[in-house]
Amino acid sequence: MIITDLDKSLLNNDRQKTEYTKEICKIFLILLTTNISRTIIYYKKIMEILDLYDKNGNKLYKTHIRGEPLKSNEYCIAVDVWIKNNKGQFLLTQRHPSKIYPRKWECTSGCILSGEDSFTGALREVKEEIGINLKKEEGKNIYRICRHDRQIIFDIFLFNKSVNINEVKLQEDEVIDIKWIEKEELLEMFKREEMVEPLDYVFELIEKGLL
Q: Does domain 76-207 have CATH number 3.90.79.10?
């Protein structure tokens, strides 16, 4: 069942076939050496299986493989995670050149997986991409934006945490650099087009005192 549900686009070329085989081997190795729940979590991550919602954020009790077309009134939920230190600086990461918006700067972000809530997804994304363990009590969901053109609902989080960026572990295929930046410089980076464009809601949140 796992194999028949996989996205066939993974088999487009020999390199993808090799990567596909490696991931399937990992799945069955986990299945043999641990429990089924861990296997399901790993499978959801590599395939990016997402829950679907309507435009108001109500769960439709259907799942979706990221990258496949969405039907009308089907939305995924993603999280944008802003981290702010005790100096009032924001933590930014630079996107890998192979990704959309190559080499641009952003906060940590990503889609929540099937079975996750937004808070859980936010904690996981930060841990995976930059190796920082956030605690739920350190942050809060400050805003929600619905991008109808992309059929994605974004939950915006702010966490207050001071970390030494020399000790973080970057996810190599996602992030190539990391830095702390003052609020004023953050706004200037948008003007210089160095930031991921859909994050321009930052101006509104700063004006409202939410960031």
A: yes
